[in-house]
Amino acid sequence: MRASPFPAAPIDDADADDAAEPQLAGPQTLQAVVPPEFAGERLDKVLAQLFVQFSRARLRAWCEAGLVRMGEAVGQPRSKARAGARLLLELPEEPEAASFAPEPIELNVLWSDADLAVIDKPAGLVVHPAAGHWSGTLLNGLLARFPESAALPRAGIVHRLDKDTSGLMVVARSLAAQTDLVRQLQARSVSRQYLALAWGELPAPVWVDAPIGRHPRDRLRMAVVAGGKPARTQFRALGSCQSRSGPVTALRCVLETGRTHQIRVHAQHIGLPLLGDPLYGRRGAHCTLRRQALHAVLLRLRHPRSGEAMQWRSPVAADILAQWSELGGDTALLDGAHRDEPSDGAAA
User: Which DSSP category does 173 fall into?
Assistant: First the structure.
């Protein structure tokens, strides 16, 4: 059974389209309902918001090929979306079409109930299928571990970690929970803390409030750019050591927003590039770590059903501890980072 990509933005219950609901064409068809806030917008733009695993250009081409229906009518790219209209997307035989399939991937599940699950993600695991990674992702593993997640947008995924960032993620196991978790994230009431190793020194805690967007020349990278999306991160030094390539600081990082590569971009922006970071790191510095030194150590949120305040902690990944030790750092400092309380000003 396939995952149905309803919007991962806050979801409001919507009435079905007034016309008789068309029958699904089969296992290669995905469906969604147009949320009220998207009413009147171009259909290709709405599709790009609801089916984020596909590019807008590809979705536009599928509209033009007659593969998208809105209610009983074929949807054209410039068609105006109707609130509550049911959308059907018939997937052609392309790599993307096979990406929503369950795979037996070992997952470290720290907590699970009928509403949510908390995963301790290893470095190297891609969260969501995308170009070059149409299988072997966390999403594929969730579909195998929790088969009911096939009925949820993105199999219940509400936020992401970069492929080579390790640590804590929460995923939903019901549509009501997913709606609530997305709203908590958008309200910035979810607390997420990370441990990072960075080149340089940080004499005092600092909030970085700098917008992030696509790099103007390198489309693989993000950057602090005028007109980017608002982004805010706090950095606080836990300790430092001296390496042959200069000082290295262990940082506690608190996210107030959740932009692509946010910690990595903001750290570079203030002159503290992360160790091992292939995109934003310091070239030529001695480092044996084969990925960015970034680990999600703490996650706090309110349970979507009970409202209870909950938290989970993850010990710093072994390869980051080993790198810190190799540089002469005190491993006890990092090993206890996940037990520390949030710094002043952290999101509640």
Answer: S
Mind listing the pLDDT tens digit for each residue in 100-150? 789 999 999 999 999 999 999 999 999 988 777 888 999 999 999 999 888
b/e per residue 107-135 (b: at least 16 CB within 10 A): beebeeeebbbbbbbebebbbbbbeeebe
Contacts 24+ apart (CB under 8 A), 43-50: 43/68, 43/70, 43/75, 43/76, 43/77, 43/78, 43/79, 43/80, 43/81, 44/77, 44/78, 46/81, 46/87, 47/87, 47/89, 49/7, 49/9, 50/5, 50/6, 50/7, 50/87
User: 40 by DSSP, 3-state: which?
Assistant: coil
Contact 91/2 with Cβ under 8 angstroms?
no
Measured CA to CA, the distance from residue 310 to residue 285 in angstroms comes to 40
By DSSP bridging, strand 294-302 and strand 166-172 are parallel
DSSP 8-state secondary structure symbol assigned to residue 1: -
C-alpha 119/C-alpha 309 separation (Å) is 18
Going by DSSP bridges, is the β-strand pair 294-302/246-255 parallel, antiparallel, or unpaired?
Answer: unpaired
CA distances from 209 to 162, 235, 257 (A): 21, 11, 10
CA torsion angle 273 276 282 283 (round to 10): -170
Q: Which helix (H) or strand (E) holds 334?
A: helix 331-335
Please list the active-site residues.
162
| C-beta atoms surrounding 343 within 10 Å | 14
The residue type found at 265 is V
Q: Whole-prediction pTM value?
A: 0.74
Q: What is the mean pLDDT of residues 23-52?
A: 79
